[in-house]
Amino acid sequence: MTENSGPNTPTARATIKSDLRTSQALLPNVSVWLVDDNDRFRTLVAELLSRRDGIQCARQFSSPDALLSALASKPGPDVILLDVQLGDRNGLDAVRPIKSLARSTRVLMYTTCYDQEWREQALSEGASDYLLKTDPVDKVVARIRFPADDPTPNSYPRRRSKPPAEKSPQKPPTNPVTEASARSLMQTLKRLRSLWN
Questions:
Q1: Which of 40, 72, 83, 89 sees the fewest Cβ atoms within 10 Å?
Q2: Cα within 13 Å of Cα(127), Cβ side
């Protein structure tokens, strides 16, 4: 083999880089909005995502109320990365109002805390996935670009379904912060709808 042939030559490397750029250019642009109450973390994630070809982190919000206000007046993005714990707000309570304003937008929960009940609630409310902030950025990018067929990733433990209890159904314990957050979000959504109509 000569010095100018093979995969490690400058010409071969240039061809590989060119092919890689071409394949990345073919990726559709994905518009992402990010909701997190931690300004520094939100800015860092937006910057990391924007450096990836095909991803545009177009907007950032510090609260679900600000996000809902934007959704009431503008078309939604392809994907919303939504934190669960947002100060006195709960991102889980925002999933259903988000989906009512932007049905085709995929909501990906993006949190520091893996909680099976939160995950199940998020998915039942309409979220497409439940990601952890400790997940590698490549995994987050992959889920933004290519939605998982099964929103229950193998990396998370699955709860075995229990047979239905024969006792009378009991109302689950309530969380006053979550209930207040949900009421506030619904009031904001009603106000925004009345302004929009």
A1: 40
A2: 26
